[in-house]
Specification:
This protein is about 0% helix and about 55% strand. It is an all-beta fold. Strand 4 and strand 5 form a beta hairpin. The protein is globular, with a radius of gyration of 14 Å. The relative contact order is 0.32.
Amino acid sequence: QVQLVESGGGLVQAGGSLRLSCVASRSISSINAMAWYRQAPGKQRELVAAMASGDSTNYADSVKGRFTISGDNAKNTVYLQMNSLKPEDTAVYYCNAVVIARGYGAMDYWGKGTLVTVSS
């Protein structure tokens, strides 16, 4: 079991920055992969950035060069640094954790989300 709590969302003007945090209930080094997803009104949830064990990362094309995912093992926290924000980044951002357990396969855990609103 993993509980995830996001924070850091808010209202920001276009061109501004925000840093989202996701605190996990267990060591993130014990989690196989962590990611940020987002869901805009009327749209499907989409992957924004992901980080797997070993620190490999990948990003949606729409955020490459602007967003950075990182982790702090000491704080059990994953961050999403978002720079040069655009109105189209407006969405609820969700933290996701994937744990692969022998005999159970891959299990997904989700936070409740944090709202990011970018004004033009």
